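Weekly sync, protein design subgroup
Attendees: M.S., D.O., the rotation student, P.L. (late)

Item 1: inverse folding check
M.S. brought a backbone from last month's batch and wanted to see whether the design step gives back something sensible before we order anything. D.O. pointed out we never logged the input encoding, so this time it goes straight into the notes. Structure tokens as presented (291 positions):
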């Protein structure tokens, strides 16, 4: 039977989200059985009992280009279940227009997907790390004529020492190339990772070779946190949804912020509890499951 002590134990908010809503003991047992059944169906649907590992070719591509697509990392059914759970949540944007995040704290299905060993193993394989931690997740939802995402590096928002971090961009539907992220190949190797000025962002699309790839349900696009990436304006009637999962090397150490974006991220993710040089603790960056 699933219980609170079987979840990562450092975040009381997560336990409150799931278990305080089960009701009185007379009904909690039955609800826990139903939850256990859903999570077991979800776990098996992710891809069976053998996690998908990154091949040497995929590792080399990630290290060389700063991005890679892992095909059929998950079963389409598992991603469809993830999409259904997120649709039921229907989270709004923040008051300042930012996309919703920390979905794993709000849904047992999302929690089960993110902390399944498959994500942790893929991330660890690509980073060359023995263990990894979750930074947070972000749900992107676009329809109609929404503007694209400007060129940026994830390192604009996070600062730490260690092997690095990556983002796993999981589309919640089959997604044509024009609706996926675009990457500047090799940009993670650049020694200069300062914030780009507006005119530099405008010139990127014409001066650099960038790549974008169509994705089918079950694929995951992964990029290094130093890779320049963005997206173009989306024009279409269909809703384009993707869950981005940000993962960090578990041996990383916190570094002081050097811009306002990092200061905001530290506040939102409780990294401001840490001092420069501190290891990341479970309450601000929970460990992802490993076999």
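Designed sequence read out in the meeting:
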């Amino acid at each position: 039977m699933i219980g609170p002590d079987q979840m990562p134990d450092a975040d009381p908010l997560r336990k409150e989200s799931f278990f305080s809503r089960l009701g009185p003991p007379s009904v909690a047992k039955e609800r826990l059985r139903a939850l256990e059944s859903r999570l077991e169906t979800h776990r098996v649907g992710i891809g069976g009992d053998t996690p998908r590992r990154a091949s040497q070719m995929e590792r080399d591509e990630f290290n060389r280009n700063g991005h890679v697509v892992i095909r059929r990392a998950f079963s389409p059914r598992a991603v469809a279940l993830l999409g259904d759970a997120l649709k039921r949540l229907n989270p709004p944007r923040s008051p300042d227009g930012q996309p919703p995040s920390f979905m794993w704290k709000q849904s047992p299905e999302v929690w089960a997907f993110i902390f399944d060993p498959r994500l942790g193993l893929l991330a660890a394989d690509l980073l060359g790390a023995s263990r990894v931690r979750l930074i947070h997740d972000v749900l992107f939802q676009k329809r109609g004529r929404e503007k694209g995402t400007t060129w940026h590096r994830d390192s604009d928002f996070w600062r730490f020492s260690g092997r690095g971090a990556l983002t796993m961009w999981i589309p919640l539907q089959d997604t044509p190339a024009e609706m996926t992220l675009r990457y500047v190949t090799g940009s993670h190797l650049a020694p200069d990772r300062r914030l780009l000025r507006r005119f530099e962002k405008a010139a990127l699309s014409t001066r650099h070779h960038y790549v974008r790839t169509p994705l089918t349900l079950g694929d995951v696009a992964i990029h290094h946190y130093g890779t320049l990436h963005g997206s173009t304006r989306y024009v279409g009637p269909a809703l384009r949804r993707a869950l981005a999962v940000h993962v960090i090397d578990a041996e990383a150490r916190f570094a002081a912020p050097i811009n306002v974006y990092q200061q905001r991220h530290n506040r939102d993710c409780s990294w401001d509890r840490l001092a420069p040089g501190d290891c990341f603790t479970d309450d601000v960056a929970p460990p992802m499951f490993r076999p």
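Discussion: The chain has one domain: 26-273. The radius of gyration is 19 Å.
Action: P.L. to compare against the previous round before Friday.
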